[in-house]
Structure formats: C-alpha cells, structure tokens
Please model this.
Amino acid sequence: MPIHDQTYRRYDGSRQELGRGWLVILQNGVRTMLSRRAFVVLLVVAWAPFLVRAVQLYFVTNYPQAASFVPVDARMFHSFMDFQGIFVFFVTIFAGSGLIANDRRANALQIYLSKPLMRIEYIGGKLAVLVIYLFAITLLPGLLLILLQILFSGSFDFIRHNLFLIPAVTLASLVRVLVSASTMLALSSLSKSSRFVAVLYAGVIFFTDAVFGVLRVIFGSTRVAWVSLTANIDQVTDAIFRSPPRYETPLVVSILVLLGLLAISISVLERRVRGVEIVS
Model:
C-alpha cells in the first residue's frame, strides 16, 4: 500500500553514549548461550572438579590424617587449573565457534558496523562473551577453592604460607582464557560455518600436539614442545605456580610463541572484521 504521510518526526527515544555498544553485544551473547540447554549442562559438568576439590578440602581440614593421601597445597590448585583445560577446550568450541561466523553467514556484520559501533567495540563484545564463560570455569572456581580453604580451616595460615597462590590462579586463568578466546575468535572470523570453525580449532589443538609427539620421538627431547599450543600453556602455567617445568623448552620461547599467537589473532581480526565501503 502507498505511504501517504512522509513527514519528518523527531526521535523521542533515549540515546546511548558512544563506546557502550559492546555491552549490548555482550548481553545478547550471554543470554543466547544460556538459552541452550546443552551448553548449560556443559557448564554444570565443568564445575564437577570443583566439587571434588571442595570435598577434599573439607576432609583434610577436619581429618588431618587424610593429608597424607590427598594433600592440600599449591600443587592441588595447579592440578585443578590443568584439569580445567579440558573444559576450556569444549566451552571455547561450543560458545566461540559461531560468535563471528554466524554474523558472517547472515551478512549481519555489515549491519553491525553500519551503526555508530566501532570495530573494536564489536570485537570486544564478542570476545567478552567467551572470556566470561571461560573465567566462570577457571578463575571463579579457583578463587572459590581458596576461599573454602580459609573457611574450612578457620585461619589464614595457608594463604600466608602461599602468598603467590591468588595471583597464580588469576594469571594462569588469564593466560589460558585469553589465548583460547583470541584464537577461536580469529578462526571464527575466517568462515561462515560455525561447524567448520569448531573443526578448525580442534585441528589446531590436536595437530600441534601430534606434531610435538612425533618430533619428541624423533629428537628424543621435549625441547620441541613449543610447537604445541597446549604444551606452551602448560609450560607457562608451571612457571606461574612455581612448579618444575614439565618440558625442556625454555620458558621465554613458550611465552614468545603465545604472544605471537595473540598478535596473529589480532591481525586476522583486524583484516576480517570490516564494514563494506559504498562508493557512489
């Protein structure tokens, strides 16, 4: 039907300040993932190791003789962070593979960037969705375990003897989460298929581990652990928790590899997340 009234009308809605658009993307992304029952189940399962460690803390503080079988020390928290790496892998795939790929498939990227929304806001909002969920299964339970240890023991003696533990849990979580999230986000910007992105991310993890396994047999040394993404994260985590390194690769090399991967991810996002220029 024809439109008869085309008179101008002032906008009566509220105006949001510039620089807050990423919050809208974050809120929408968080709600979307929580609406998926399978993902919620995955998050619940990811907290199972926390419950096991919480029971361990309870028994050791109430029955000190149990400490000889299940000791509570910095190594316990280190082991917990390592084990959470399995769930970081699955949550990264489930929550991250479609963050940008789905927008590319629906041609929504041009709509996002045609609004008063900066590219860094778009990327930041998408990255924050994945970071929040990954922190929810690494940093949050790790800090809660420390809090439970204080509550169960009724003193701060454990923390006073392990002052590095809270920064270690925080930094170890930050390293694992940022590397995983930035890598997945960069891969998600390369395709319009979230399934292909998931396979690609799994391929990066398993392929680099396989290459490391082959080179380890050929050279009879673990100095080539730098070729494995997982091994580099483990090597840095060992240093953070002041544990003996599990590989012979120098710590500096592992740090440089992870920093290089972050730089590559940023470069890929800078090139792939762009609006469409319209030339008249």
Q: What stands out?
A: Residues 21-272 form one domain. The chain has one domain: 21-272. Residues 76 and 130 are 26 Å apart (CA to CA).
